[in-house]
User: What shape does this take?
Amino acid sequence: MSTTTQLSQFATDTMEGLSRPQKVMLSKYFYDAKGDAIFQQIMAMPEYYLTRSEMEIFQTQKDAIFNQVCPKGLPFNLIELGAGDGSKTKVLLKHFLKMGIDFTYYPVDISQNILDELVAMLKNEIPELDVHPLNMDYFEALKHMEQFTGRKNVTMFLGSNIGNFQVERLDRFLKKLQGYFKPNDKLLLGVDLKKDPDIILEAYNDKPGITASFNMNLLVRMNNELGADFDLNQFKHYAMYEPVTGEARSYVVSLVDQVVRFSELDFEVNFEKGECIHTEISRKYSVKNLNHLSEKCGFVTSANFFDSKQYYVNTMWEVV
Assistant: This one.
């Protein structure tokens, strides 16, 4: 995807989202080069348990995961949607290679910057790995999955990325994904579980303000790429968690009445004092929720892998 195409889509989505009665920005636009770097800081925060929990699962249960992924030792394609920096995935990649299995790794990510870093890291640490990066969003990746014929496909969607979908959109995404699956294909999902609300909220509202800087970087990106004139001192980060629905939500809140102009787009946005832009949702699930979701979308759960605190699950689904 060219930079021009990305910028055009960014501009279109920005104008559409900020023209709604409830202003909204798509969370995929967090991830420019600066956003990637801030998110790596977030993953290292003591409050952000998600990365550590999934890493623990991979480190301690990699044999059990391998037995689910490749029970017959046949070659397969490993497709990872939203691959990120690969810090957790490489635990599995190294183990699969150690087991002597023939597989090809297809990391998919909207950020070319993070893919470049991932490929460089893998070439340095696992030079024997066959890697084919795909710079596109999830739905574009689904179209490309049809070319992966002749082998079983194992698709991974880790890091609790399914939590970023609204319920209806997640249903559509999973049903569409299921439509590309062949018999014996697998789906490994990383899912954050419902737990003490305070533990969850701290992960999205840390005291040092790293998550706040990640959220506010959306405004910086609009300034840099779309000619906006957001004054960051006139906005603040706000996060909340609703334990019944399991929704952790992030917002950028306007502190004054103001008008933001986009010189590159001939576009302006009025903000009232206290008005907010909804920037991210991160939904948490119970095991019961997940079982219902898998059945509704045409899958069956074949295994669940939990961390020691039961904060997180990697759930393996197959086509019914």
About this structure: The chain is about 40% helix and 25% strand. The longest strand covers residues 235-242.
